[in-house]
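Entry: Major facilitator superfamily (MFS) profile domain-containing protein
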Amino acid sequence: GLTVSAAAVPASSALSLRTLLLFGLTAGTAGPALFAWSGEIQDRTRLQSVLYYLAQNCPSACAIFGTIACNQLSVDLYPVEVASTAAGIVLSAGTVGCVVSPYLFAMFNEWSSFYILLASLGGASLVMTLGFLRFEPWSKQASDGAVDSTPLLGDK
């Protein structure tokens, strides 16, 4: 909660968007898996308790760092029409997730199965991010002489 939010402010200004997104997705993959494992243990050792409390905060770290990176990456797109559309898609996907996730949680018999699903989705997102997403700012592309070969409909 509050600790993760307090850490997100200096981290978002000091780290690159790629690092923020990868950190958020790593927390979203490892955190729910650790929480599902450590939450089932009745008598925890000190190390297991520390892992339990750290894993409990990992979904919020994933949400905060992922939201910062996704929103900023969508706004950094060029041209402006594409940037506003991408930002709208990011916001609408978050809204759909807020509506669907309680129903999805209710479908599972055990809470730990839901957290394993969250860890799997985080892992899939991490793999797709590393495999498909280019992290090259438009300012660098423009300085390299990149040109837009596909004009928008409004440019005609």
